[in-house]
Each structure stands twice: as C-alpha cells, then as structure tokens.
Amino acid sequence: MPTRVAYLGPExxxxxxxxxxxxxxxxxxxPSFIPCNGLRSVVxxxxxxxxxxxxxxxxxxxxGGVTASLDSLWIYPNLFISRALVLPIRHCLMSCGSLNEIxxxxxxPQALAQCSGWLKEHLPNALQxxxxxxxxxxxxxxxxxxxxxxxxxxxxxTNEMEEIAFPINDVAGNRTRFVLLQQExxxxxxxxxxxxxxxxxxxxGALLKALSCVANLGLNMSRIxxxxxxxxxxxxxxxxxxxxxxxxxxxxxxxxxxxxxxCENLVNFGSYKSNxxxxx
Length: 280
Known about the structure:
With about 280 residues, this protein is of the alpha/beta class.
C-alpha cells in the first residue's frame, strides 16, 4: 500500500520539499503526498489516520518555534517523530510586475517576518498580507502586476512568475527544521529525543527540578520552548529536545522515569535522527 504523507500545501511550499526529502530518507513505501490547508490540519491528518505520516515545520533559526505545530502536537500526543530534517530557507520575491509597481506583498507570516528588513528598505509602503503558505501566496498573486509573493525559487518556475529579487531573507543562514510524524515510534537508534511536559504547579523551583533530571544524567538540552497551556494565565507547556549518546535506551528510560513524578502530563515523541540538506 502507498504511504500517504500530509504536508502544508498547496504544491510548491518548503514543506513539500521537506516531505519529499524525508520520505526518501525514511524509505517510505510508494509515498503519495497530500497537501493540507493549515498546520493543524496536517497534524490532524496523521493523528486521525487519514494519512500514514505528516511533515510539519517545528523550528526556524530566525523566528524560533513554529507555534501552530507545537500546539497541535500537544493536542495530539499519540504521535512520534520518526526523523528531522533541517532545510535552508532562501526567499524569493516574485511577481508579474516590476518592483516599482508592487503595493501588496503576500506570504506566510513566518516568511514575511524573515524578510522584514529587506521589505522595510525596498518596499516600505507596501501592504503585507499573510497567507496560509508561501505557495498559496504565489497562486494568489499570479497575473497581478501590483501584487508580489515571497516563496521559494522553485515556486516561481512552476507558476511562470518573474523573479524580482533573490534571496531577500534578512539572515543568510536562515534554516527551518521539519519533522516527520507517524503513529508508531521509530525503531532506529536516534541522537535526539523530544519531550513535552506540564508541571503539577507553578511553584518556585518546579521547572528547575525537571531540568535537573537532564543535567544529572549528563545530557545536553539543545532546545527548550514554552507555550501557554490555554487553561489559565501563567500556566505553560514546555517542549524540550535532548541530545543522546549512542546506544542510549537505558538513559532514555531513566530520564522519563525521573521526569514523570514531576509532571502533570509528559509526552514522549520518541528518539530520532536529524539530517541537513542544501537545496534551493
């Protein structure tokens, strides 16, 4: 049976590139790619078994955590991360008009934020309009001379758009980490474990005790991020990535065993490998 892989559509997004690459790395059987409208919908597709896997962005080197993905993972804790992929992000400004004709710029909010300096310098008076994805922005500006889209260079080629400027992201090393989600935990040895947890109470030292579980095992925490629990003000959920030594099954079990008594809820997204590729 083909493996159905959900991703943030429409065709031509950075997520589609990541989905193709992750499916190849994981050697998924006859992958077919299902574009979805919105990140929560992507996660829902695999959580409800409408798809066999899903690819979502989890973190950007400039803008930080992708909150829609993090919140969706907390809502659907039955999912595991099979593999991560770091993808370079090089944004292109494209239109059917010229630079001096542009009065509206469309793109995903993260892309607009990642190009804010360039836009302020070159198009300070243009109206910025957020879209669900970069590829959707390209589709919406096609044929217009006063509208432009920010997206990947490949989206320009497939939509017969003119390249106005490339690259326009403010930080040359802009990268996004995507993860492949499935309902079964990967059996491959991984060098990263991802966890999410909420604490019993917002009390002095509660978070420190949880973090000490990592430090006491001599492990390195490579990322921690908080998100509102959405239950009450001042209550948070924490997402954490921890680097693992080789053959660390005993260490993983000990870490989770030590954390569980301190947490109201603890979600283990599993351990997995992370890769990095360099494509336009």
